[in-house]
Design a protein that fits this description.
With about 240 residues, the chain is an alpha/beta fold. The chain is built from seven helices and ten strands. It has two domains: about 140 residues, Periplasmic binding protein-like II (D-Maltodextrin-Binding Protein, domain 2, 3-Layer(aba) Sandwich); about 90 residues, Periplasmic binding protein-like II (D-Maltodextrin-Binding Protein, domain 2, 3-Layer(aba) Sandwich). It is globular.
Length: about 240
Amino acid sequence: MLCGLACVAMAAPLRVGGFVVAPIVMADGGNAGAPLTGALRDFMEQELVKHDGLALEWAEPTSYSRAIENLRSGKIDVLLMTSSAQDRSGIANFKWSYLHVRPHLAVMKGSPLQRVDSLQQLAGMEIGWVANSPLVEGLDQVPIKWQLLSAADWQQMNLRKLKLGRIQAVFYENEYSPLYYARREQIDIQLIRLPMPERAFMMAYSLKSDRAAIARFDKAAAAAFAGERFRQFLEQYMRK
């Protein structure tokens, strides 16, 4: 016999974690060790917790490499963001995605770089990105002088380095993060779309997690994120 929402509520909460990709996943800047915040958590609280009755426990945001290790070890059950379609040891991706984005470079207004028609134009440039993350296919073939940060707030720190002239550009897999930080930090940037395929943001889960709980989450989240629902939510979130 199915017990519906009552059984879901009684189940142990799934531990959900990730790394900062603002404003989708963010840290509580005023409280070290506080659970992650951001548009994705707000959407999931609304659609999965309140509407579907899932029990979720939010972990503090970490660096990219720590988030992957936490998922692999089972310290967290669900990773909020990955753009890699390949399953990794101890980790599997859900088959649905919740946001499609286009890779961009952020440069300062007035930069000599105004357009990128070929990725080879980036050869020799000093570009900021996150440490320990696989390079996006295509960029791995270009001799870029990558300036990598491993801190949880790597996106914000890279934009500050750009403002100070320590790097020439910052790579972002999406257009939302640089716009969010530029407005908050009052940095006058320009976004340059790269000639690269669209990227899909997905979630992943630990193979050490309870299979029934993951299956319940999978079914509810696939329905909640169908279509453009999260993109519309995110665009409203950006206007706050």
